[in-house]
Each structure stands twice: as C-alpha cells, then as structure tokens.
Design goal:
Blueprint: H1 3-50, H2 57-69, H3 74-88, H4 94-114, H5 123-126, H6 133-159
Helix pairs in contact: 1-2, 3-4
Length: 170
C-alpha cells in the first residue's frame, strides 16, 4: 500500500466514524438552542398576554423562570431585577404604579431584543395592548358587583347582634 493509499484509508475511516459523531453533536446543539428559544418565547408570550390583566398564575410562573431561562442575558435579568425591586417596595402611590408598569414594559422590551425582535416589537407596541371595550365593561361590572357584595356583608355584620365572649377559667 502506498503512502497515498494509507492516507486515503485513514481519511475514509475518520469520515466514516467522525462524521456521524459530529452530526449528532451538532444536532444536539441545535436542538438545545431551539429548546432554549422556545422556553424564552413562552415566557415572553405569557408576559405579553398578561400585561393587560395584571397578575395571573402563569405570569408569576413566567417571572420566576426568568433567572433560569435568560441566565446568560444580563440585560433581561437586570430589567427583571429592577421590576422585582419595584414590586418589593411597600409604596403604593400612583407614581410607583406607573414606575412598575414602565419597568414591566422595559422587561418585555429587553426580552424582545434578546429574541431578535429589536426593531419589530417596540416600546410603542408593548405599551399599547389590544383590550376590547366589552372586556373592560365586563371587568368594571364585576368590580361593581364585588363592591356591592362587600358592602352588603359589611352592613349585615353591623346589624347582627354580637355574641358575648365567655371566658373559660380553669
């Protein structure tokens, strides 16, 4: 066997063994990358949807996953930390409510950038969700109904005779 044939045999052996292994490694990398993007997109979708409702169970779950799913993105995690700090504050003024809302929008903006939507999902898009008037009317009717129920319960407790407490002595 000549030197050239030996080199060709070795190259063929490397190709036969190495290419399938390389294909598996590359395929696994691409699959992991796609799964991470899917997780990021799920969190982003959940938070974009819930921005009109306020807190939902799904939005709280999504927020709690940010540090894990966006572990390598310091801009997203920084925006999340700022929002978390604002929510940890006991201040409940209108100014604080507006600050929290803006920080929530900033978090969504950073997520959009991370997902490659930098110029397509903008601040204006994020802060202008679609909410049909009928839905707003329904929310307001539910709030009025709840308030009426609370008022009724409060008035009933004020007219009910109070039970005397008996002290138990041993």
């Amino acid at each position: 066997m000549t030197r050239f044939e030996t080199i060709m045999a070795v190259l063929n052996l490397v190709a036969i063994v190495g290419i399938p292994i390389l294909a598996v490694v590359i395929g696994q990398y691409l699959q992991n990358r796609a799964e991470k993007r899917k997780d990021k997109m799920q969190i982003f979708r959940t938070l974009m949807t819930s921005r009109i409702y306020g807190w939902t169970v799904d939005s709280v779950h999504a927020l709690n996953l940010i540090d894990v799913v966006f572990v390598k993105d310091t801009a997203v995690r920084g925006a999340w930390k700022n929002l978390l700090d604002a929510y940890s504050s006991s201040e409940e003024s209108e100014l604080m409510k507006q600050k929290r809302q803006n920080l929530n929008y900033k978090l969504l903006e950073e997520m959009a950038k991370n997902l490659g939507y930098k110029d397509r999902i903008t601040w204006e898009t994020i802060q202008n969700p679609y909410v049909p008037k009928g839905m707003i009317d329904q929310w307001e009717a539910q709030a009025r109904s709840q308030q009426a129920y609370n008022d009724l319960l409060h008035s009933m407790t004020s007219i009910m005779p109070k039970k005397e407490s008996k002290e138990v002595t041993k």
